[in-house]
Amino acid sequence: MRALWQKYKSILAYLFWGVVTTIVNLASYQWLSTGLHWNFEVATVIAWFLSVLVAYFTNKVWVFGSHYTTVKAFVVELIQFFFYRGLTLLLDMLIVYIGISLLGFRSPLGQFIVKIIDNILVVIANYVFSKWLIFKSNEKMMKK
Asked: Which of 20, 89, 113, 117 is 20 to 30 A (C-alpha) from 98?
């Protein structure tokens, strides 16, 4: 049992914190878009920013256990994290645009469904970027 935990603990932690991050994203988007009636693109960007802040610190500490020894390592890691999350923001914006503007899912429930589908795809892409590019390259930099 312990061997299984060690083998899959980063994936399980990522899934747990991914759910928390997704809740932050969905809740802030719904509140801004359908609650305050803000433009869905603006709501998407603000929800993205809030969820990326949550994701960075939870991924760093509890998922990948990233420890930096210098300010430079921290800054590089933070910039990489926001850069790759910025790429998935483009995916996020594209999916929301297609779902709401082109396919017409404008009701609160329709927007919520679009955001759930969107978040599933974005979480997968974010895991790949975090696991193999962001926190992995920080480990390499620390060894130098």
From this structure: 20
